[in-house]
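# step 3/5: fold
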Amino acid sequence: MYDASLYYGGKAERESSILQKLGLDPKSYILATIHRAENTDDPARLLAIFKGLGAMAEKVPIILPLHPRTRAALEREGLLEEVSRRILLIGAVGYLEMVMLEKNARLIATDSGGVQKEAFFYRVPCVTLRNETEWIELVDLGWNCLTPPLSAAKVFAGVRNALGKLGVPGHPYGNGDAAQNIVAALISRS
């Protein structure tokens, strides 16, 4: 996954124009992604996340590619209009556009497992809005901070406290040369 992120990160730099389309400067915004059922199907958690992010958006712009499940949940709870006044909600984006948004974010707030890892690959601090993470090594390195969305105040504080905090160097997923090592091993056996 790290090898692929390095490859597609470079490709996104060459081919994506999403920052220009949205009028964004690098490191000037927070990227948020919310889609897990544990957050979208629980009205209290949904409200905590979007009230907390809404408050944070008064200090740093927040961009959120809106997942269909999340849109439906916000509509069901009557929150979509209020959320859209504070947070820049955009439609789903392609992979290269998402990579560009990730690479250039000041911080990422997410409940996605893959986005947590990509944040680390691009050295962007991450707040995971869940009770747990599959990638505890990223918490240990300081690149990811778990923030269970139990209240708007906790979400706001978790995001605010993570701004500008970089983790320590580490390579828990290798150095980005796994494909080369695999090819070399295959060649050496032929």
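# step 4/5: annotate
Residues 2 and 34 are 23 Å apart (CA to CA).
# step 5/5: archive (pending)
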